[in-house]
Write a structure and sequence with these properties.
Blueprint: H1 16-25, H2 29-42, E1 46-48, H3 54-59, H4 80-84, H5 116-124, H6 131-142, H7 154-164, H8 171-181, H9 194-204, H10 209-220, H11 222-226, H12 230-237, H13 241-252, H14 260-266, E2 276-281, E3 284-289, E4 297-299, H15 301-312, H16 318-358, H17 360-365, H18 376-383, H19 387-396, E5 398-401, E6 404-407, E7 415-417, E8 423-425, H20 426-439, H21 448-457, H22 464-473, H23 479-482
Parallel strand pairs: 2-5
Antiparallel strand pairs: 1-4, 2-3, 5-6, 7-8
Helix pairs in contact: 1-16, 5-6, 6-8, 9-10, 10-13, 15-16, 16-18, 18-19, 21-22
Length: 485
């Protein structure tokens, strides 16, 4: 038997306008320009430039329509999932120019170049090879990664040649052709590991006593060299410290990633446009929002006039009502978008202004040791907004300061207690740790235990494990690998 029941549920849903605002807040300047361009092209009721939109406000009092522009028609609930879907922006919509004429031109022309793989193949074409050898060498070149290495085993390459190219060859023949590939520029390309890469480069140099010794060190004592066991190298090769130093200098001049410089030069660099600018004027901080974040938008007068004409007409056909309902929807969407842009501007400014006040000493001096401990909740409490809103601003926005362009989230850090019981930023501790390591005696670098003692003497009681964690975050190797001759 079927039973019917009635349940009441309290659900908290975000309105489409709230979702639109959250998505716009997290957009950096360039992405926001693209989003603005997209909306201008998709909604003809929205226009850019200075214009008075008061007429639209008056027309909203039209009793013939509800808030969505429908005449006595109940609107269905809006599907929130549709608003949460990622917007696909075609390339032709990304050419935005929504900023004032006195702004500095930020566009950078990029030059297209030959790919790394094609650069190597062009060199192979100058070598006399059989048709089969050309296919194999091309396959080897295709197996080279961006760093210039072949990371795959030759056995796997042999299998791929058999299955994909129907070419059956031997490992010896493949190694012979690999030697040809390794003769290409840049020197060291086609190596299977770091040792082979360095040896290829050394063997191309003119013979010098230091180069000959460097080759012997790499071939016979590569592990000792990598681990900087210089005492063992001195004993094994029966050489003086000065001779060993010259050989090591020869190795240090080599390029461990021969393909890296070529690939990076052909990559399109990401252009960063600051969302904020901070200036110091007469000892005071001045914050300005990038003008590209403050476009001038208004409601289309043409669409307003269409509504006016419909309102004044005595005979209203069904087709006219359908058209006007569409117009009202577009006008409402345009008004929502304008409100979202204004709220975005206010939210960005409030967040950044609160960050400036909290980190005022740093922005006035540029000294990272002046950075105070600051977490997202500190700013959220000041501006009375949710932590997620502050996170959206901090994670994707940049600010131009007198000391360079910074990602806003870099100003956030946790706190630790110093020996006086005061809260200090972990960034301050990392900066001091980095300074201590830079100034250490490189012949006897400080271990993590000794670094912990040094920082304790400076007033920062930090455990050795914490020192190790901060050192890794700063990409600083252990003491043994920092040792120099």
């Amino acid at each position: 038997m079927l039973k019917q029941s009635l349940n009441f549920k309290l659900l908290q849903k975000l309105s489409p306008q709230q979702i639109q605002l959250m998505k716009m807040i997290q957009l950096p300047t360039q992405a926001f320009e693209q989003r603005l361009k997209q909306e201008l092209e998709e909604n003809p009721a929205l226009e850019s430039g200075k214009e008075n939109a008061d007429e639209y406000e008056d027309l909203n009092s039209d009793d013939d329509f509800d808030s969505a522009g429908n005449e006595n028609i109940e609107t269905e609930d809006i599907n929130i999932d549709e608003y949460l879907s990622d917007d696909e922006i075609p390339n032709y919509k990304t050419q935005a120019n929504n900023y004032s004429s006195d702004d500095e031109e930020k566009h950078i022309p990029y030059a297209s170049g030959t790919s790394f793989t094609q650069y190597l193949k062009n060199q192979i074409n100058t070598i006399r090879l059989t048709d089969e050898e050309v296919i194999i060498t091309d396959f080897l070149i295709g197996s080279i990664d961006d760093s210039g290495y072949i990371r795959r085993d030759l056995i796997d390459i042999l299998d791929d040649l058999a299955f994909t190219q129907n070419i059956f060859t031997t490992k010896e023949e493949l190694e012979r052709l690999l030697k040809i590939v390794q003769q290409l520029d840049p020197a060291g390309v086609g190596a299977r590991d770091l040792m082979e890469c360095l040896l290829i480069q050394l063997k191309r140099k003119k013979e010098k006593p230091s180069s000959t010794l460097a080759i012997k060190i790499l071939e016979n004592s590569f592990d000792h060299f990598v681990k900087k066991h210089y005492t063992k190298l001195l004993q094994k090769f029966h050489i003086s410290e000065e001779t060993l130093k010259e050989a090591i200098q020869q190795i240090e001049k080599l390029n461990p990633k021969p393909g890296g410089s070529f690939v990076s030069s052909n990559k399109i660099a990401e252009q960063i446009v600051p969302d904020f600018t901070i200036r110091i004027i007469e000892g005071e901080l001045e914050l300005t929002l990038n003008s590209r974040n403050v476009p001038e938008l208004h409601i289309s007068n043409e669409y307003n006039n269409l509504l006016k004409g419909y309102k004044d007409s005595k005979n209203k056909s069904r087709s006219q009502k359908d058209a006007v309902m569409f117009i009202k929807q577009k006008l409402d969407a345009a008004k929502w978008f304008i409100d979202a842009v204004k709220q975005r501007q206010q939210t960005l400014f409030l967040n950044m202004n609160a960050i400036i006040q909290h980190q005022k000493e740093y922005f006035l001096t540029g000294d990272e040791r002046k950075l105070k401990p600051m977490i997202l909740k500190d700013i959220a409490d000041v501006i009375d907004m949710d932590v997620s809103t502050v996170s959206r601003v901090a994670n994707s926005k940049y600010v131009s300061t007198p000391y360079g362009t910074k990602l806003i989230k870099e100003f956030f850090s946790e706190s630790m207690k110093n020996d006086q019981g005061e809260d200090v930023s972990t960034k301050e501790i990392k900066k001091i740790l980095e300074t201590v390591i830079i100034e250490e005696d490189k012949k006897k670098p400080l271990t993590d235990d000794k670094l912990s003692i040094v920082l304790k003497e400076k007033g920062y009681p930090i455990a050795r494990r914490t020192i190790a964690k901060y050192r890794e975050q700063l990409n600083i190797p252990v003491a043994r690998l920092r040792k120099e001759m």
